[in-house]
């Protein structure tokens, strides 16, 4: 009987190890091309590891020029697998991927697993992915939570103005969100998250005073264009690029259908007639 314990334990151990390996593989969604793009950029920009992280974010961002814009690439159901898609970007995933790649390089890593870990840390509340509600769906919370994780600094915004706003778009329009439409029992939890977010004042640079914004912006800042629409905090996200002594916006553009660098200055996005009310800054730190 004793002679049979060893093989049984070995089989059980192999079964558990294979199950865990399969679980890890099934926990992510990506294509071989995404892994290749990530590794190519990690190797290419590792030569610039000594640069400030904001400069790395900007340089990596520029390397994505022309990448197609595709919305809702993260929507994959309640389980919320980690989506790694560098072939198709929306405004938020563009900024997240650039920041994750830059942080991986600053950590002295050039492997895909290290990049994936940084992306997950950035994208989820407290870095913990636990189904759909754990994602940082609102950019103002994305800024605040990543500031607490010391990934970005939100202190530049304190040079602007305080704003209290009720955030409630997801819970009041759940039909616009496939997971909430399929799992309406999640709506109260999302509403509670929105309530907590709405109770926290955030700071921004209103469009009525662009001069104050321009004194504060830095090359490589990640910014959110704050919304004048009820229920939502930010309309669009991008990366600031200083060019010809002006600040431009590098972003995954719905209208252009790809990642572009704005021809005009970033202040063009906060003209008086714009639906954007101002700008929030998320400054990469390391």
Write the topology of this structure.
Layout: H1 2-25, E1 28-29, H2 32-45, H3 53-62, E2 82-83, H4 91-106, H5 112-123, H6 139-148, E3 152-153, E4 161-163, H7 169-172, H8 178-182, H9 187-199, E5 202-206, H10 210-216, E6 222-227, E7 234-243, E8 246-253, E9 258-261, E10 276-284
Parallel strand pairs: 1-2
Antiparallel strand pairs: 3-10, 4-5, 5-10, 6-7, 6-10, 7-8, 8-9
Task: Please summarize what this structure is.
The protein is an alpha+beta fold. It has 10 helices and 10 strands.
CATH superfamily: Putative xylanase like domain
What percent of residues adopt helix (DSSP H or I)? 40-55%
General form: globular
Number of strands: 10
Describe the protein.
The relative contact order is 0.15. A hairpin with a 4-residue loop joins β8 and β9. The strands form two sheets. Strands 3, 4, 5, 6, 7, 8, 9 and 10 form an eight-stranded antiparallel sheet that branches. The chain has a two-stranded parallel sheet with strand order 1-2. It has helices at residues 2-25, 32-45, 53-62, 91-106, 112-123, 139-148, 169-172, 178-182, 187-199, 210-216; strands at 28-29, 82-83, 152-153, 161-163, 202-206, 222-227, 234-243, 246-253, 258-261, 276-284. α2 (32-45) crosses α4, α3 packs across α4 (91-106) and α4 (91-106) crosses α5. The chain is of the alpha+beta class. The protein is built from ten helices and ten strands. The longest helix has 24 residues, at 2-25. It has a single domain, classed as Orthogonal Bundle (Putative xylanase fold).
């Amino acid at each position: 009987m004793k002679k049979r314990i060893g093989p049984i334990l070995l089989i059980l151990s192999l079964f558990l190890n294979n199950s865990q390996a399969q679980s890890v593989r099934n926990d992510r969604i990506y294509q071989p091309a995404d892994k290749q793009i990530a590794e190519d950029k990690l190797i290419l920009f590792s030569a610039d590891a000594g640069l400030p992280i904001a400069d790395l974010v900007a340089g990596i961002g520029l390397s994505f020029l022309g990448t197609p814009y595709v919305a809702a690439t993260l929507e994959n159901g309640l389980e919320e697998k980690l989506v790694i898609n560098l072939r198709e970007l929306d405004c938020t995933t563009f900024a997240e991927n650039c920041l994750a790649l830059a942080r991986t390089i600053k950590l002295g890593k050039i492997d895909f697993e290290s990049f994936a870990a940084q992306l997950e840390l950035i994208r989820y509340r407290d870095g913990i992915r636990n189904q759909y509600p754990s994602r940082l769906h609102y950019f103002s919370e994305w800024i605040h939570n990543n500031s607490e994780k010391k990934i970005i600094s939100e202190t530049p915004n304190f040079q602007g103005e305080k704003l209290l706003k009720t955030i409630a778009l997801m819970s009041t329009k759940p039909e616009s969100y496939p997971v909430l439409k399929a799992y309406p029992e999640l709506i109260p939890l999302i509403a509670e998250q929105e309530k907590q977010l709405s109770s926290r004042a955030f700071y921004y640079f209103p469009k009525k005073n662009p001069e104050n914004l321009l004194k504060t912006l830095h090359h490589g800042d990640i910014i959110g264009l704050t919304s004048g629409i009820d229920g939502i905090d930010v309309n669009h996200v991008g990366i600031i690029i200083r060019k010809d002594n002006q600040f431009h916006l590098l972003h995954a553009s719905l209208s252009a259908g790809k990642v572009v660098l704005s021809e005009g200055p970033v202040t063009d996005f906060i003209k008086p007639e714009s639906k954007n009310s101002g700008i929030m800054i998320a400054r990469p730190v390391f």
